[in-house]
Automatic annotation (TrEMBL):
The keyword Metal-binding does not apply. This is ATP-binding cassette domain-containing protein. Transmembrane segments: none annotated. The keyword Acetylation does not apply. Residues 5-230 form the ABC transporter domain. SMART domains: AAA (SM00382). GO terms for molecular function: ATP binding. InterPro entries: AAA+_ATPase, ABC_transporter-like_ATP-bd, ABC_transporter-like_CS, P-loop_NTPase. Pfam families: ABC_tran. Belongs to the ABC transporter superfamily. SUPFAM superfamilies: P-loop containing nucleoside triphosphate hydrolases.
Amino acid sequence: MGHAIEVAGLSKTFGATTAVQDLSFTVDQGRIVGFLGPNGAGKTTTLRMVLGLVRPTAGTATINGVAYVGLDDPVRTVGAVLDGGALHPGRSGRNHLRSYARASGIGDDRVEELLAMVGLTDAANRRAGGYSLGMRQRLGLATALLGDPKILILDEPANGLDPQGIRWLRDFLRHLANQGCAILVSSHGLAEISQMVDDVVVIDRGRSIAQAPLEQLMASAGGGMRVRGPDVARLAELLRAEGATVSGDGDLVVGDRTGEQIGRLVAEHQLVISELTPVGASLEEVFLRLTQSEAGGPS
């Protein structure tokens, strides 16, 4: 199967300004990909190109192998929330969803299902213009899910959510990914993203500066993976035999293997371990190191 979202050599210039430059990455079914970068890095422009709202200067952006404008049924293929989602302030949350549903041939039962799913049933008859920012985010997410798409593109979905709402969003998106959804999510909330995503794409000034599974990025930047448990001595032997860098005795630190690679070796040899965690830097520290280095600042 192809990639759910594929960006290949994507570039966009606005006059003399280059917003995105030769950007490539993919998002696969069942994965949540964090799309990170400083303000002005080109994140929103990239998302708009994927959704056919901005025409690329060069390169391609496809959804299930097709440009957005060529999708047979876009509502049931991909859902998106940009800028918190557009809503009419005089409409109730329920009527907002119903208007979008009817335009797409979707019944009211789906509207009620989604209101319950995003926790807005009790506020459904209130005017959306009086919603808090967090409530508008939930309504935007419900709108994106009307057609039960298997691909989601979300721009700052945690903006305005309180800690309980952020926890809800994290669990909700993980539930969707476990059902096979491919999710591309941009955010400035690095602490939240670090608990939410499987993979990370970091861009700065329109160019990719890092792309990797989150665990691999954290391990390579922060000092490796820590392993504890009764069978670590045997695991150390196996890892060294494969050429891995291993330090420590009772607690191992493996410098050049991901948690997934170590886990596979543990399973293959039926070893018992009690801990397998990244060592060192937080995602925020990794992000700042990458972007400051790219800008020529301290690294």
